Amino acid sequence: MGSGDLERSLGLYSTMMISMGAMIGSGIFVLPALGYKKAGPAVVVAYLLAAIIVLPAALSKAEMATAMPESGGTYLYIDRAMGPLFGTIAGIGAWFSLIFKSSFALVGLGAYLLLLVPISQGQIVIVALALGTLVVVLNISGTKLSGQVQAIIVSLVIVGITAFTINAGLFAETSRFTPLRTDGNTGIVTAAAFVFVSYAGVTKIASVAEEVKEPGKNLPRAMLGSLGIMAVIYIGVVGAVVGLADPSVLKTGGPDGTASLTPMADGAAMLFGGAGVVVISVIAVVALTSMANAGVLSSSRFPLAMSRDQLLPPILRRIDRRFKTPRNAVLLTGAVLLLLIAFVPVIELAKLASAFQILVFSFLNLALIAFRVGNPTSYEPAFTAPGYPYVQVFGFLGCMALLTQMGLVPLLGAGGIIIGGAVIYLLYGRSRTDRVGAASQYLQRRRRKETPEPESD
After folding, report:
1. How many whole angstroms separate alpha carbon 219 and alpha carbon 221?
2. 457: pLDDT strictly greater than 60
3. Comparing 408 with 9, which gets the higher pLDDT?
4. pLDDT at 1
5. pLDDT, tens only, 390-423
6. Domain map (residue ranges) of the chain
7. What are residue 359's phi and psi, to 5 degrees?
8. Homologous superfamily assigned to 12-253+263-439
9. CA 410 to CA 49: how far, in whole Å?
């Protein structure tokens, strides 16, 4: 193994747990009440709608991952399909999205900490910064160790929330679901856009594809399996929260009358009393920390891959000789993570994470179309996404529809990512690479065929 190689140490179970760990945090423990405020009881439908719109990107990425089982994931596929300009934009967007989500998880767990110990808001930020630092150290220490820790934590969290959901089914009040659509179809779509980031982790395991054993089999199984399992868990848990918790608490139980940031604890209080709140709060803190770990593990591979392609400075592609991890890429990711925890409000983190993720997922669907149309000789996936191209077109249009519901600030943030990525490419990457994507190769072949040969004298 060379000094620039990463170790293939992640099996199917660990890979699925990394994917589920990136999904099992804020989507369950923080976002349900925020979605409830926008859609009422139909927030359950919003989670299902978000999963349906995520599915085309998951199928597309599963195919591309088996053709290119290398670190970089989203960035790598969009770059090779649509060229380095789009690759830079997607890489920066996907990197920021996961960091925002990880920051949101660590800040969001503060609301649950308040239910366990009497600490101030300032101390919550300090705890979140400490946990963020721990996550960075863990990721530098080794992917195998990080994956093993992830598998244990996620398994325990799933057991806990499954027990909560089963018990809730016995005591939930069905009247809380009537009427279902209190805010109409628009409210459902808006809530789906807001909770979309809950499913972001489903494709992020592709960014560590270079460290997955038998990627041709394990990557598509882990992506699609974790998406299916998490969709069921989300719908069950959110349904339990809606059926148990007081609607007014969900809508106004948070700081300054905002939506509750502890909806699982609100439901547990109705189900198990004070003991239930303690148990759920402990599970929430552990799960949200786990989600942040998965986010740093995955997001740090984007600057690694972009550096390998000469789109970012070479220092980011260095692999630690002892731990075989991209130390500098992890440190950069960790530094941004800690800055966001310290200075950005938690709700804005959630909005921006969703907006960036929707934008990147729309690109993924276009990338698969580019590969299929361009048909480069090196593109030989072990898994083929079904329903092409209709599934990808639906996924792209669905993402665009959700993006329009995010509000002005997230839209400006998505626009900023596009502009910022383009500037980085033009100022740094353009002069260092002459690579073109599969789409450009296809157009070049078409032009050569359509240009008549000059007549000989």
Report:
1. 5
2. no
3. 408
4. 43
5. 999 999 999 999 988 888 888 888 889 899 999 9
6. 12-253+263-439
7. -60, -45
8. Amino acid/polyamine transporter I (1.20.1740.10)
9. 20
CB 263 within 8 A of CB 254: no
Q: Give me the chain's average pLDDT, please.
A: 85
Separation of alpha carbons 363 and 421, rounded Å = 14
Asked if 283 and 293 touch (Cβ cutoff 8 Å), the reply is no
Q: Provide the terminal-to-terminal Cα distance of the chain, rounded to the nearest Å.
A: 57
Residue 271 identity (one-letter amino acid): L
Q: pTM, whole model, 2 decimals?
A: 0.85
Q: How far is CA 237 from CA 24, 179, 267, 283, 446, in A?
A: 11, 19, 10, 14, 52
Residue whose C-alpha is closest to residue 27's, from 44, 13, 10 = 44
Phi then psi dihedrals of residue 71, to 5 deg:
-65, 145
Place of tokens 């596009």: 418
State which amino acid sits at residue 378.
S
pLDDT at 455 (0 to 100): 61
Reply yes or no on whether the pLDDT at 110 is more than 50: yes
Residue 35 vs residues 17, 110, 186, 315: alpha-carbon distances, Å = 25, 19, 12, 41
Query: What 3-state class would DSSP assign to 413?
Result: helix
Distance CA 357, CA 197 (A): 6
Give the residue carrying structure tokens 């994507």: 437
Instruction: Give percent above pLDDT 90 in the chain.
Output: 33
Which long-range contacts (C-beta less than 8 Å, at least 24 apart) are formed by 359-362? 359/93, 359/399, 359/403, 359/414, 359/417, 359/418, 360/74, 360/90, 360/93, 360/94, 360/97, 361/53, 361/54, 361/57, 361/203, 361/395, 361/399, 362/57, 362/395, 362/396, 362/399, 362/400, 362/403
